[in-house]
Amino acid sequence: MTIATDNGLSVLDGGQLRLLRAIDAVFLRFADRWDVPEFRYPHLVRSQDLDKFDYYDNFPHLGLAATRLDPARLGAALSESQRPVDRIPTEVMEPSGFALPSAACYAIYADLAGSTLPADGTMRCTVATCFRNEDHYDGLQRLHGFSMREIVCIGPEDRAKQHLERAKEAVTALCAELGLEVKLAVATDPFFDKNSGKAKMQKLFPVKEEFVVDGLAIGSVNYHRNFFGERCAIQAGGDTAHTSCLAFGLERWVHTLTERFGGTEAALSAVEGLS
User: Fold this and answer.
1) CA nearest to 101, candidates 136, 65, 135, 70
2) How would you label 181-212 residue by residue, b for 16+ Cβ within 10 Å and e otherwise?
3) What is the rounded CA–CA span in Å between residue 149 and residue 159?
4) Angle between the 14-33 and 264-272 helix axes, to the nearest 10 degrees?
5) How do beta strands 98-99 and 216-225 pair?
6) Residue 36 in contact with residue 126, Cβ under 8 Å?
7) What is the dihedral sign for C-alpha 95, 97, 99, 79?
8) Are 243 and 150 in contact (CB under 8 A)?
9) pLDDT, tens digit, for every residue of 223-251?
């Protein structure tokens, strides 16, 4: 059972939570197999880091800030409001230096800023609660806050592209084993400014491809070229690093697997029975 609100907030019951942890354990086995260390980053990202990535230019519709409330102004505002208060008025909010991330990988690039990596680069795995200011929400398929697992490559161009191909093979094989009919589709949402040179190159080599099951994207592979390497001054050997990542929306996998197997317990048994 999923308890949902009209604001994209859902509660996972015990069975759904076990299923989420089980499928995430499968993704962690990918990381272990590829010798990728796991990191856990802060829940917030700095606004200036996102701005460095042109985030507020390319994704203004998704942005969410974490802001401090001024106690004096808050108290005065609440004293004049009906309780419980439905919305916190903007006039009691302080300017914010922190944002709620919409993807898990931003923190990795910010953490590696200014670093020189070995010639073959590095890889990192992480999970984060991510947030998106969507125009609508739909159960576990589209949430205000959701769990994202990512396996990220930061290194030379050839290694970043190899990570994409290996990831696509691994996810395709996993879906086949679970009996999921998956399609790999080029995503339509932008990443680079539409007028930039990188955006024009995107037509030759897709930046983002999604794993789609029954019309729902349950994961993606993303190639950012040297964008983050340039913006964060990350070197791999003597060159600017390229980056690529494999990403999974964990709640979407819970939804998809529950639909596929007709219930949470059957889906859990199938995932735990994977070779």
Assistant:
1) 65
2) ebeeeebeeebbeeeeeeeeebeeeebbbbbb
3) 20
4) 20
5) unpaired
6) no
7) negative
8) no
9) 999 999 999 999 998 999 999 999 999 99
Q: How far is Cα 43 from Cα 99, in angstroms, rounded to an integer?
A: 9
Residue corresponding to tokens 């991330």 = 101
Superfamily of domain 14-44+102-273: Bira Bifunctional Protein; Domain 2 (3.30.930.10)
Q: Distance between CA 155 and CA 237 in Å, rounded? A: 8
DSSP 3-state assignment of 64?
A: coil
The pLDDT tens digits of the residues spanning 31-77 come to: 999 999 999 999 999 999 999 999 998 888 888 999 999 999 999 99
Q: Model-level pTM?
A: 0.91
User: For 92, which DSSP code?
Assistant: G
Which is nearest to 167 in space by CA: 153, 181, 186? 153
